[in-house]
C-alpha cells in the first residue's frame, strides 16, 4: 500500500476520525472494482484536472500514496501547463505509472469532461478555484472518487452547487477528500482531538492569522486574450480565486471551523483593501489584506487577519481561548500547546512527535480508503469552511455586517459571460460602502 | 436592593475559591441587577453628581467642538466654576466659543477679550493666567507640549484623548505625569468611559471575578465618515492642515489613535494594563480623496497581552458601511459586553446595568474638580492614558509598517511627527503608509 512513512496507522486514523467527527465508514459493495489483490494492487487510474503547481504536487502525492496509482489523463485550460507538469514526472521514481500520451491530455475549458470520461477511477481537482464546482459536479455524476483542492468555490452559487455534489457523492459512496490539509496534519489532529476532549473547556474565542507575501504574477505575452491573461494570473482575480481570503487564508478559517465544531457563524464583519497600490493589471482586483470577525449566535467569536504584502512580518498561527485556558497553534513552527489561565502547561504536542507531510497524508488516506472500500466525505464541513471565507470577503468588500443566511442565499455569480479565449473586462477593485451584497 | 444571591456569599467570593464546586452549587445563573449600592472597589470612583466648594477657574486651550463642549461640561460639573481664559490657533474658533459661553452662561462663562488668545502660542498665554485648571483640547499632536507646559505652569489638567500621536509624545506625557504626581497636580483625561457608571460597575464586577480571568477581548469603532474642512486659500498649508486635522497623522494620530483609543482603553482596563505586542493590517480603500490627507480608513489589530491573552481591535471610517462601537471581554467564567450607556455580563453570572448613568462627559469634570478641591483623593490618569494612547499608536505603527512590534520597542522608538515650533507656513509632508515600505 503506501510507501510513505506516515505515523498514523489505520487504527489511529479510525480513532481520530471518530474523535473528530470525520466521516469514515466502510460502505459494503461500493468499491469492489478497486479492492487490492493479496499481492499486487489493482491499478487505480487517476485523472489530474488543473496542472499548475498544486496539481503537479497532488499527482506526485497520489503516485506515492499507492503503488497501483496510474496517472492516466490530465486536463488544463492551457496545453503548455499540461506539458510542463508531465515533464516533471519524466525522472520520477514512479515514471512508469505516468501514462499520459498526447491523446489523454485534454486542453481547453471543457478538457475536464474528457479527462473524467477517460476511464479513470479517481480525479484530482486542482484547477483555478472558479472552475471547481463544475469539475466536482461532473466528477460526482461520473461516479469518481475525488481529491478536491481548496477552495471548492468562489461564490454563493458555487456553494450551492458544491452542496449538491456533496450530497450526490454521499449517495453514491464516493470518496471526497478535501484539500484542507491541516485536517490531515498529525500535530493539528492531536491538538483538535485534545480540544474535543475538553482539555480547554468550552471554546469562546479564536484568533487566526495568515501573514505572508504576495503571490507571483505573469506578464502579459503577445497573443494572450484578456481571458488568457486573467486565467494565467488567476490568483489575482476574485472571480477565479475568490480572493486571498478564500484562496489562502481559508486554511486558517478551516481551523476556526474545526474548533467551532463545524457550526456556521451567525454573521461576519470584515474589512480589507489594496494597500500596496500597485497599478499593474497582473494584480487584478484582489485585496492584499483582510480582517474578519465571525460571531456565533451563542456569543462565541473568531477573528482572522491575513495579508499578502512583501517585506512584512510573516506568521501563520491560531490562538484559542477556552473556559479552562488558552491554546496556541503554529503549524509552521511547529508548536502546539494548551495552558491554563495561570500559565501551567496542560498539554503540548511532543517536540519529537511525528510530523508527516500533511499533503501526502491526504492522499495516503484517500487511497487507503478507496482500497478498503471505505468512504471519506469531507463535504459537510469543507463547504462551511469555504463559505465562511466567502462570507468574510462579502463583509469586507461591502463594509456590511453580513449574515450566514444572506451570504449563502446570495445571487451574485462571479462567472464571466462565456468561457472563451477572447475579450474580457478588467474587474474593478471593490470599495466598501459602494459594493453591496446581493 | 434587589440583588439576588445567597445571603452568605460576599461579593468578593462570589466566584468561590474553587470554581467548579461553586459552579455546581448554583443550579441557575445568579442574576445581579445594578439597583444596589455601588460596588466596593468602585465606590471611590463613583463621584457625586455635582462638585462644590471653593471657586475653581478654568482655562480652555483648543476651541473646537470638543474644547467648547468640555468648557460647558466643566461648568455643568458644579456651580462654583468659572471659565477665565480661552485659546486656539484660530481667532474665529476662540471668538465662537467665547460667544457661545457668554450667551449660555453669562455669569460664569463670559471671558473678556483680553483673555481670548489665538495663534500657535495661545496656549502659553492661557497658561500664564491664574486659572486653576486647564482643559487641553487642541488637535492631539500638540497635546504633549501643551500638557508638559501646563504641568510646569502648576495647573491641574483635564486633557482630551488621545494625549499624543507618536512615541516621543507619549514619553513626554509620561514624564510630565510623573512631575504632576510630585506636585500633586490632578490630571483627568477625556476617556469618559472611565467615569461612566455602567462601565465602572461592570469593571468592578470583573475585578471581583464575575467573568473569571479575562483571557480574550475584542473592541470596535466602525463608523461612516467624519467632517472635513476644504482648504481656505487665505490660510497657509500648515494652518489648513490644522483646520483639517483629523486627516493628518501628525495632528490626529490617524483614526485608530484619535477615536478608537476609547475602546482600546477599555480593553486595557479589563486586561490590567497595556499589551506586550501586536500585529496589524490596515489601509485606505474607500476614503481616498486628497482632502482626507494620507491616513487610513480601516485598521485591524491583534494585540497580545501578558499571559497569552489576545484582543482583536477593529476600526473603520468608511461612508455607507455598517457601524459598531463596543467592547467584548471574554473571561473564563463569562463575557462582559459594553458600549456607551450599556453593560452586561453573560455567563454563569448574569448582570445587566440598569441604574442611572450620569452624563460621563460631565462626570469626568466633577471627578477632577472634587479631587482638586480635596473632596476626593488625588487623581492622576496621565500614565494610564499615555499607555492607552501608546497602545493605539502601536497598532497604527504595526499596520503602517507591516511589522511585528512590541509595546516596549514602540514606546522607545524615536519617531517624532510634530514640528518643534509649529507656525503658519508649509505643512508637514505625508504619504500613504505602504506596509513593508513605511
Chain-averaged pLDDT of chain B: 91
**What's the name of the CATH homologous superfamily of the domain at 212-354 and 382-411 in chain B?**
Dihydrodipicolinate Reductase, domain 2
Radius of gyration of chain A: 21 Å
Strand content of chain B is 15-25%
Distance between the termini of chain A: 49 Å
Mean residue pLDDT of chain A = 92
Q: Based on CA inertia axes, which overall geometry of chain B fits?
A: globular
Descriptive report:
- The complex is a heterodimer of chains A (438) and B (438).
- Chain A has 438 residues and is an alpha/beta fold.
- Chain A has helices at 10-20, 53-65, 79-87, 111-116, 132-141, 156-171, 186-197, 226-232, 238-241, 243-247, 250-259, 358-372, 379-398, 404-408; strands at residues 24-26, 44-49, 69-76, 105-107, 122-125, 145-148, 176-178, 203-212, 267-273, 289-295, 301-308, 315-322, 325-330, 335-339, 345-348, 374-376, 402-403.
- Chain A has two domains: 10-182 and 358-379, NAD(P)-binding Rossmann-like Domain (Rossmann fold); 185-355 and 385-408, Dihydrodipicolinate Reductase, domain 2 (2-Layer Sandwich), CATH 3.30.360.10.
- Chain A contains 14 helices and 17 strands.
- In chain A, α2 (53-65) crosses α12.
- Chain A is globular and about 65 Å long.
- In chain A, 54% of the residues are buried.
- Residues 1-37 of chain A have low confidence and may be disordered.
- Chain B is built from 15 helices and 16 strands.
- In chain B, α6 runs parallel beside α7.
- In chain B, α7 links the parallel β6 (156-159) and β7 (187-189).
- Chain B has a domain at 212-354 and 382-411: Dihydrodipicolinate Reductase, domain 2.
- The radius of gyration of chain B is 22 Å and the shape is globular.
- In chain B, the strands form two sheets. Chain B has a ten-stranded mixed sheet with strand order 1-15-14-13-12-8-11-10-9-16.
- Classes of the chains: A alpha/beta (438), B alpha/beta (438).
- Chains A and B meet through β8, β9, β10, β11 and β12 of A and β8, β9, β10, β11 and β12 of B.
